[in-house]
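Q: Structure tokens for this one, please.
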Amino acid sequence: MNVLVCNVGSTSLKFKLYDMPDCVVTAQGAVERVGSDHDAVFSYKNNGTGRGTAADKQDIPDYQTGIERFLYELTAGENAVLDRVEEIERVGFKATLSKGYFGVHEIDSAVLEGMREWLPMAPLHNAAYLKAIDVMRGVLPEARFVGAFETAFHRTIPMERKIFGVPYEWYEKYGVQRLGYHSASHGYIADVLNREKTEYAAISCHLGGSCSVCAIENGHSADISFGMSLESGLIHANRTGDIDCGMIPFLRSQGLSEEEILQGLQKKGGLLGISGVSNDLRYIIEAADAGNARAQLAIDVFVTGIVHYIGAFYLDLGRLDDLVFTAGIGEHSARIRRLVCEKLAPLGVHLDDAKNEACHGEAVISAADSKVCVRVIPTNEELGIARRTYELA
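A: Here is the predicted structure, written as tokens:
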């Protein structure tokens, strides 16, 4: 079965075509800077031959153009892998959330309405997926569309860790609860660990532009740093993470507009807001090494938050067998891994410094005497979505 996985961002599209159930990627593509004239970047690759195309300074004004460009390369270009688009039987989306739909679901009118109803919870993410799904339905009318929602993996979190201290009617009527995200990433980490063992306690640290820490018990999510929205939990590249809700009316009283407050929370906060340097941790580390105190503070706040959640989840789980780092920062920043693990020494966590510094790709980086196996596992969100899209009855 040909399963197309589509990962949609506010200005980007990423595609992988899988031959299932063999989990072989036959082709992949990406569009960056969707919505720009003369500045978009397009790439496509036939994985069987290794040949493809890459071009910048492209005119891709909307999702329609980007999707049609990819499907042309997939079926009619010189590096095509399919004869016609009708050979794509299913399309899987790393969708964000839909009211009342938390797992893996066929995307029908009810699911789409749930996505629209919870648009305020993820305005950029849900809006992008709604547009992309609408376009895809037009060009692939015979395909079956599946949403692997980013809340899916966390449905197993116990109620006492899920419910907020709000009027219970808000939970019943509006669905106010800890939802959690990054299911495709943490779920993939669980898939990897599940192939090795059936009983274990693990903590997965997805550290990238968006960040979260997840407690995993025997393959199931037991807790997650995210709350109900994407603005919560750890600080992110631009987003604040957890804040005191009383801050918002206070800022209003100080004369800030609603738009200024939202910009501060969603666009100008996080690593960028504290450092004043960048939302990219690499540049923040460079600035800190050059003596920038605010850049160093951003790193300290970031590491402290990660350790805070790991410590809490350690007590939730009662033990810790595996500590996993994944996503862009988790996979590539030896500095952050070292700083986190140094603070976890009371839990018996000890790094092998040489292995940590030399790590490229999947590896065990803990020392021989460490009570916890510290690992780097590059996440493969698309593969997890392809599996769940294929498996849906």
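A few notes: The chain has a mean pLDDT of 92. Residues 293-317 form the longest helix (25 residues).
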